[in-house]
Amino acid sequence: MITVALAGKPNAGKSTFFTAATAAEVDVANYPFTTIDPNRGVTYVRTRCACRDRDGDCEHDHCRNGKRYVPVELIDVAGLVPGAHEGRGLGNQFLDALTDADVIITVVDASGGTTAEGEPVPVGTADPREELDFVEEEMDQWLAGIIDRNWESVERQSRAPDFDLEAAVTDVLTGFGATPGDVTAVLRADDYPANPRAWADKDRERLAGAIRARTKPIVVAANKADEAPAELLEALLAADRPVIPTTAEGERALRRAAEASLIEYDPGDPDFTVIGELTDEQQVGLDRIAAVMDDYGGTGVQETLNTAVFDVLDRMTVFPVENETRWTDGDGQLLPDAFLVERGATPRQVAYAVHSDIGEGYLHAIDARSNRRIGEDHELADGDVVKIVSTN
User: Fold this and answer.
1) In this structure, what DSSP letter does residue 328 have?
2) Rounded to 10 degrees, what is the CA torsion of 168, 170, 174, 179?
3) Residue 32 phi/psi, 5° resolution?
4) Does the structure show a pLDDT above 80 at 325?
5) How far apart are CA 324 and CA 341, in angstroms?
6) Which DSSP category does 212 fall into?
7) Percent of the chain beyond pLDDT 70?
8) Is 373 helix (H, G, I), strand (E, B) or coil?
9) What are 209-244's pLDDT values in tens digits?
């Protein structure tokens, strides 16, 4: 399962985002370090369900009128303060928790209502643009420190006649989630000294930044967009990276209102419909959320998750089935599973995503839309329905 991590300074709204996205109750308070141990839960990215291409909806628990929600893991880690890579705040604990992540969502206080330490100040006082590079800079310096502390071992290994720089660096970075392919790509993309004893601090820092960017890409959630002065939010949106205007508090309120049958709303919808009796206070709150949704096409929570997984990680959704004619499993359920795979994945890669045994026993695959057999090297497309034929 893909793992998405929420990071940022204290009091930016990470735990509120987590609660809104997972429906899990965690501590949310207006002071730094509300979160100590990482919160872990399951959230969902939203895509079009292939059942839209048949006569009836699939009636899957994760499908709502053709809106398919595919699970991913979400981690909410302790707040980051300046100098976290040196152990300030809960720095090392925070950074260790991020090593499991495939992609990171930096939650920024777009309202400018908190200091770098997470202390509340009047809205518009702080400059949220200072938070844009905050997480990646701390991670880069932390990783550079790990590389530096282990570099003497790499230098010793270099004296052996069969020394392999890529393998030695991979050993150092395995705990960070870097694969041999990641290390090879980074080392070959830049001009690093072949002899590790010739490396300077700047070389190790470059390596750390490149590995972090490749293995822990970042999306920015400009949270508290409903409170943000227009000029601050516009400055964030002008940044050269994915930035999504977000109101995590608004999303949480909508999901709770939907659970209480006060509104009709599916996560990621651009609006909602009132179906129940509201108090005056509830009406005012929903009107405020509706105004933000009108401006930005939603609350931003679902869009941020989708951007992280579909755009930044470049994933797509494939629907494996057992019956290629009816698009069902052995029990007759329509489109029982949806898997997130790398864009352009082959049928064999999907087989391994389903289960390693299925991948090991892979024979061939059938495109359920055309009912034709497809080759092992065939590149699947988003929304494909496929039957995997395997000995296992």
Assistant:
1) B
2) -160
3) -65, 155
4) yes
5) 20
6) H
7) 92
8) strand
9) 999 999 999 999 999 999 999 999 999 999 888 999
The pLDDT of 80-104, averaged and rounded, is 68
Predicted pLDDT at 56: 72
Can you give the residue ranges of every domain in the chain? Answer: 3-38+77-137+217-309, 316-390
What radius of gyration do the chain's Cα atoms show? 23
When the candidates are 3.30.470.20, 3.50.50.60, 3.40.91.80, 3.40.50.300, the CATH number that belongs to 3-38+77-137+217-309 is: 3.40.50.300
The confidence score (pLDDT) of residue 33 equals 43
Tokens of 102: 């495939």
What's the CATH code, domain 316-390?
3.10.20.30
227 SS3 class: coil
Identify which of 92, 42, 103, 107 has the alpha carbon closest to the alpha carbon of residue 69. Answer: 42
Q: Are 256 and 16 in contact (CB under 8 A)?
A: no
Dist CA 172 CA 151 (whole Å): 8
What are residue 72's phi and psi, to 5 degrees? -140, 155
Q: Contact, 244 vs 222, CB < 8 A? A: yes
Mean pLDDT within 171-186: 90
| CA proximity to 216, closest of 61, 51, 103 | 103
Mean pLDDT of 53-73: 90
